[in-house]
Here is the input.
Amino acid sequence: MNDFLFRLFRNGETRLHELNYLFWECTTRCNLHCRHCGSDCTMGSRDKDMPLEDFLGALDTIPESHRPKGFTVVLTGGEPLLRPDITTIGREIKKRGFGWSMVSNGYFYDEKMHHLLMGAGMGALTISLDGLEDSHDWMRGHAGSFQRTVRAIKTASAQRGLNFDVVTCVNKRNIRELEEIHSTLESLGTPQWRLFTIIPIGRAASDPDMILSKEEMTRLMEFIALKRKNPSGKMVTTFSCEGYLGKWESQVRDTPFFCHAGINIASVLIDGRINACPNIDRDAFSEGNIYSDNFYEVWMNGFKRFRDRDWAKRGICTQCKQFRNCLGGGMHNWHGACEEPLTCHYSLLNAE
Amino acid sequence: MKFFRNILKGAALTTALFVFQACYGTGPDFDPGIEMSFHVVSKQTGEAIPDITIMTRGGSESKWFEVGKTDSQGFAKIYGLDYKHNGIDFKFEGKGVTPKDTLINDFSKNFHEIRL
Here is the structure.
């Protein structure tokens, strides 16, 4: 599809802004201590888990006629499996006609947990694997986490019908291991592997090992493009939707870059704030709070800055000829005073 | 606009356009699977039995795994993606009752009364 037609499609989607993907940050407690964590989650998080009834109150504001097929509530954290009521959460979401899914570090995901979650209606799952054993455990700040994650991947990969994928945050250390990670995942039967890079927020902001150079970023694109062109098995390798890539767009993912935040995606954060993706600056872009506002009214009438991104034509984006394709990249790329995007994949990959 | 979108969405070649994944999220849950409701009652008295563990076989060794429990009224709802392809073996067990194995392969019926 050429750029012009895709922009038409994107503009149509923006005007309609159908909500069909809702994150719930159900806990900020986490059993691991990841170097790249955008939320600075810890086991002893200051925030209490949001009570299920509070979230359901927000969910119930969505009219039944506005719950399209495939509407997915994504449980995220922190580590969602630290919630003892995780299966009750799933059942209550399902009872209301929504699908649900979960992003997990896989540490607590054994066969027993897998069956409990499937019985509660889980339809999609993402597990993070950040390298071979040493790199993964280093990144996750916990010896032994690699083995537990591999066990989880093996279990989930064997489940027919589950929309399952593995994500890897590519950094300076694990970029050398991509080929071996690929082989490991294929041998585990993983259906899809999604790679992304790390933006400098949370703990990653002060860690130079996390951010790729131009050469490393190019190497990553070449790797993904090659795996897509000459797949060695059934596993699909793809780059995430985090930013506009210019000439690499059609080579590393299925559809052109389109940040759906605030257009199809909303989130309910741990303190009740309403935002789009949970990694978007909460102070700069939250649109309301479920404890004081009607969630669906906020969705329908708020989110103006997400749906008209002309404001992002500033800083390095001011003169950029790709702005009409990129619109300033992913919304998570704008933090604080939003004078500039935190990263620009396009200039990193395409600059002379 | 919505009409045009539905036509576009219906065209096989462009369906992928609508399937997106937030950068740090999961893929969508597009397969609602099936749901089965159980009501577990006593064979002798007809009374509802709470806290009965419902299990199915799974894993490479085909072991029994819990997939749900009956509530205080003896009801339980179990969801599944794979069930529509095969018959499924359910096991019901709890305190003071004889465990029961039931093979269900008629998925046109989604309510089942189980007598223990």
In short: The CA atoms of residues 231 and 237 of chain A lie 8 Å apart. Chain A touches chain B through 66 residues (CB under 8 Å).
